[in-house]
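Can anyone check this?
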Amino acid sequence: MFAFSGALNLQTPHISSERKKELQLFEKHAGIRFRKSGFLNLAFCHRSFTNESTEDYDNNEKLEFLGDSVLGVVVSEYLFRSFPEKSEGDFARIKSFVVSEDTLESIAKLLRVDNFILIGKGEEYSGGRSKKAILADAMEAIIGAYYLDSGLKASRQFILRLLIPEIQKVLEDRHKKDYKTLLQEYVQKRYKTYPRYHLVKRTGPDHNRTFWIDVAFNGKNYGPGKGKNKKDAEQMAAGIAYEHVANKDP
């Protein structure tokens, strides 16, 4: 029940007539067209799905690896050609935001990637279909799959159509801030130390946890921030702290 995708030796899940219609729906919504639907189907194939299957086929991790590289090259080239007045540091800062997990997750949601992911029952039960990392990884895998299927020119057009608005947000300072980095830089410069994060509590069942975390520096605690994982809770706590200290500075 699997197929080999040409000389690349990728084993892809069988595509039923119903699944083919689903993939075509995604293509229509994303504004792209695959010559080989097996590539696109594999991009949606999470490792939890293959781990629970009795068939032997690949998951989307190789495509994710490839897509990450293609994404980086396309964004770097665009910044280099479009903003010659910017420094290397500016390029790095802008790129770090537009290829971040947060940005890729938001684009994945825009394209309704969660509706098409092939995921294992255990991961489905734990809310995996809406997890930031899974959505962002699937988005990179889609880019990798499209590159293999249609080449760099088509991939560049697809990526830039999605990411130029995100680049513009950074240039206009309308992007989502990385408060942990901002706070760390501020605290290092102002107090010659580092912010320390502390788990206050966790609530909810195992499959739907909420974490509460505060952050401390210079003898004061800020927060708590909350989130569905520790990373998001730390970001919220850092945001609370940074806005407080930044607004106090002249």
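Reply from J.R.: I decoded it. The mean pLDDT is 90.
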